Give the backbone structure.
Amino acid sequence: MTSAMRSCRKRIRFGRAVCGTLAAAERREWWIANGRGGYASGTIAGTLTRRYHGLLIAPVDPPLGRRLVFAKADAGAAGRG
């Protein structure tokens, strides 16, 4: 990782007032580009509230033709009971 990349990484934190309320968490959005025309975006609540939200939107027909390739991943935990 270059020094320019390290300086661009910034952690943003939200408290219980935002993350504990669905309506407030859905108003906060994130967006990350991969530098090749694709990106990922969503809300901090994890809901896909817009048609361009997803974990991988790929440039199928650049510069404007993008497709949702990977919409969402759900995590779960299992234990021995």
